[in-house]
Amino acid sequence: MSEKIFIFDTTLRDGEQSPGASMNMQEKFRLAQQLVLLNVDVIEAGFPIASVGDFECVRKIADNIKGAQVAGLARCSKKDIDRAWEALKNGENPRIHTFLATSEIHMRHKLKMDRAQVLALAIDSVKYAAQFTSNVEFSAEDASRSDMDFVCQVFEAVIKAGATTLNFPDTTGYALPDEFGAKIAYLIENIPNIHKAVLSVHCHNDLGLAVANSLAAISNGARQVECTINGLGERAGNTAMEELVMTIRTRADQLTVHTDVVTEHIHPSSRLVSTITGMPVQPNKAIVGANAFAHESGIHQDGVLKERTTYEIMNPSDIGLTKGNLVLGKHSGRHALKDRTEVMGYSLSNEELARVFTRFKNLADVRKEIFDEDVEAIIMDEIIHIPEVYELISLGVMSGSMKLPTAAVRLKIEGVEKEGAAIGVGPIDATYQAIAKLTGTSSKLLFFSVSSITGGTDAQGDVLVRIEDNGRVVIGYGLDPDIITAAGKAYLNGLNRLVYLQKEAEKK
Ligand code: KIV
Ligand code: ZN
């Protein structure tokens, strides 16, 4: 039997450090549930001391998630570790993940500490954390640029102090695969008690080498990899989980290791992350990009039709891709929809299914055929459902080459119907002006994009907006066969999100 690689997912922590990728509690919890379906080994749920919101998210995930270890990040300080433990303590198998930099550059300029002080603090902090749990991870921040003998000294000492996982991060994404692999081999050769702990790596993607470096580390003995869905993370991101896991699966002949990830959940998980964060995946991204399994040239198409493996090294269904399937029609019932969503890799609560079913029926009234992509878009829209303070009742626009674009909007605002109209540069601008007047929002529109879910003029329009109010940036989604309506819904969804976050902040 091949050896197992433990998958430590840090989408909720390092992934959230990606500029513009912040998630609220409801979204983080939804993602944690998805990570359980993926069957990752560890979910790093956040950095509890960073904010009250982060603390509450880690606590909620630790309290409720079963089937994966939940980790919380803490600097090497008693206050951080206390806070992390407070958030984690009711978890099934909680892990305290504490870190301290070991490179000369970090020690001198950032920590203003010498080696002896760093060593002593690392030992004390791990000992302190180990009083709470036997599941303690220690990370040597900027390890790949650190003196290797010093890292060996620190790792040997923190194992004695109670660390059970030792993480060797390439914090700045500076390493090269051969060099990084050699450093892992060096650790294994030079730390006498290394067999008492799991050796982990955490690679950043500044030079586009995070996955390659993680694989080199595995080949040299690392047995945990820290990664994120879609490679989200600080700056250029972290090791992309889907790329790592599918490489291990596809090239098991060479790598002779395995993960326990249920790969069929990869595609839905990737969609969920991009929907929640508003960060779309580039079309040519390996594994989860829209073109990852698209064959454009005639020669390739012909080859795949004759024998799929001529140009495909993975089966799209291995990542849960069910593209292009005709789902159901107008007469399909709730059970048929439930079955289909399960085949597509989604696990919906009864309440979510009910909402998705209503939307599905509405769409089926205007469209004869509904595809997996349509259902998936509705699921995404409903899964991250935000309470609606502003609800769209109706929207009418007048536009054309000879007309001044005008929009008339009727909203229900906290139960009261209000109507307003505005003119604009185009019909979407007019709609947004009317909504802004009715809601009195002072928010700024930062980004607007529209795409279609499937091909054809009857496709659903999918609108994504990013809006900002008082330093808070949120995304909004709108889905409708009418793109102006989809645009209006996206704006309202963003405004509802702002209200929701404001209310959540006031509760604290
Ligand atoms: O990049 C890094 O070094 C980190 C540590 C906290 C593990 O994110
Ligand atoms: Zn990191």
Give a verbal description of the structure.
The strands form 5 sheets. An 8-stranded parallel beta barrel has the order 2-3-4-5-6-7-8-9, surrounded by 7 helices. A 3-stranded antiparallel β-sheet has the order 13-14-15. The termini are far apart. Helix 1 (25-38) links the parallel strand 2 (6-9) and strand 3 (42-46). The protein is globular. It folds into 3 domains: 3-277, TIM Barrel (Alpha-Beta Barrel); 322-383; 390-507, Double Stranded RNA Binding Domain (2-Layer Sandwich), CATH 3.30.160. It is built from 17 helices and 18 strands. The model has no long low-confidence stretch (mean pLDDT 93). It has 508 residues and is α/β, with parallel strands linked by helices. The structure holds 3-methyl-2-oxobutanoic acid and zinc ion (ZN). Zinc ion (ZN) binds at residues 14, 169, 171, 202, 204, 234.
Sequence-ordered SSE layout with sheet pairings:
Elements: E1 3-4, E2 6-9, H1 25-38, E3 42-46, H2 52-64, E4 69-75, H3 78-88, E5 95-101, H4 104-111, H5 115-130, E6 136-141, H6 148-161, E7 165-170, H7 177-190, E8 198-203, H8 210-219, E9 224-227, H9 241-250, H10 252-255, E10 257-258, H11 266-277, H12 298-306, E11 326-328, H13 334-343, H14 350-366, E12 370-371, H15 372-383, E13 390-398, E14 406-413, E15 416-423, H16 427-439, E16 444-452, E17 461-469, E18 472-480, H17 483-507
The structure holds 3-methyl-2-oxobutanoic acid and zinc ion.
List keywords for this structure.
about 500 residues, alpha/beta, 18 strands, eight-stranded parallel barrel, binds zinc ion, binds 3-methyl-2-oxobutanoic acid, about 20% strand
